[in-house]
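Protein modeling request. Please complete all fields; requests missing the sequence field cannot be processed.
Requester role: graduate student
Desired output: 3D structure, token encoding
Chains: 1
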Amino acid sequence: MAPKPVAASAIHDQTAIVFPDDLNTLGTLFGGRVMEICDKVCAVVARRHAGRNCVTLGIDSVRFLASARHGDILIFKASVNRAWRTSMEIGVKVLAEDFRTMKVQHIVSAYFTFVGVDDQLKPTPIPAVVPESDDEKRRFDEAEQRRRVRLGPHSQA
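Delivered output (157 residues):
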């Protein structure tokens, strides 16, 4: 299975508008709603990278940095940070563009772990990812550190 560059599956500008049904009781974007969209965006990245169906295994290091309001435009950026034998870490960043001021701010970051699966939903090998830029190489290295933390004492050196 040939390795793939990060850019082959990355999403740089998936957008969504914040509607009234997306708001919590405080009038800001409901955290669960933005995480639902993040999961879908990351699922597209995972499927493009693996060339097969993938399922969400976990989400970690979720950071809600700022809020968004009705009418704001959300911009999703996601890419594979690292791939192992059957799993991969995908980093996602969400920006919000205030439609009143056109100011853009970073509102959410998270890491999703996906597993490539066969037709019986059994884990199956996926391609390695090849980091090319300095930023991709940094994220590649940091993903291994996060994986060791996620796996705890069961981590392999």
